[in-house]
Specification:
Radius of gyration: 15 Å
Number of helices: 5
Helix content: 25-40%
Shape: globular
Order of helices and strands: EEHHHEEEHEHEE
Strand order of the largest sheet: 1-2-3-4-5-6-8-7
Strand content: 25-35%
Largest sheet: 8 strands, mixed
């Protein structure tokens, strides 16, 4: 579990992930949280079904690099966002992150805080030297999150922008941006 100024960030077990996908309040009930505005929609639903669940069932893979991590606002006691790594570090020490804030909680700095927390965790893991992320070219909010956290723009391919955060950068936690 990761603690940031407002959030508790936790990886989901396979059983919790199945509750997450069911899109009911079962996940919240199992965690002692308030029901809220959690939504699991496409493309996340397909990613979980076709990639995340099978990888969590593979004992050769580290589940922390394949599961969904949720962000819980401790004051509200509600899940406000989720994110995931897209696998263990490759031969260059690179991992990739993807993320999303539920619509009811957008524009409140949750994702910036969550990504910072996940970066702190990632760089404490052996073999992680760089974190990558991609954003749609027209997703300005997601690009702003990466810029605020300190990612550097690398390149544009088709309609995607690619960003990197090397371990050599100093990770700074601000109360809220």
């Amino acid at each position: 579990m990761i603690q940031t100024p407002r959030l508790t960030i936790r990886p989901l077990t396979l059983e919790q992930l199945q509750l997450h996908v069911a899109d009911s309040t079962g996940l919240e009930a199992s965690l002692g949280l308030q029901p809220g505005h959690r939504e699991v929609t496409e493309p996340l639903l397909s990613v979980i079904t076709h990639f995340t669940v099978p990888r969590l069932k593979d004992p050769a893979l580290d589940p922390l690099y394949h599961t969904i991590w949720i962000a819980v606002d401790r004051d509200r006691q509600q899940i406000v966002a989720d994110a995931k790594f897209k696998g263990e570090p490759d031969e260059t020490g690179t991992i990739e992150i993807g993320y999303g804030t539920y619509p009811a909680f957008q524009g409140q700095g949750y994702m910036t805080e969550m990504v910072r927390g996940l970066l702190g965790w990632a760089f404490a893991q052996p073999g992680v030297l760089r974190v990558m992320a991609d954003t749609d070219a027209d997703n300005l909010a997601s690009q702003r999150v990466l810029q605020k956290v300190g990612f550097r723009f690398m390149e544009k391919t088709d309609d995607l922008l690619w960003w990197e955060y090397p371990v050599t950068q100093e990770l700074v936690f601000n109360e809220r941006e």
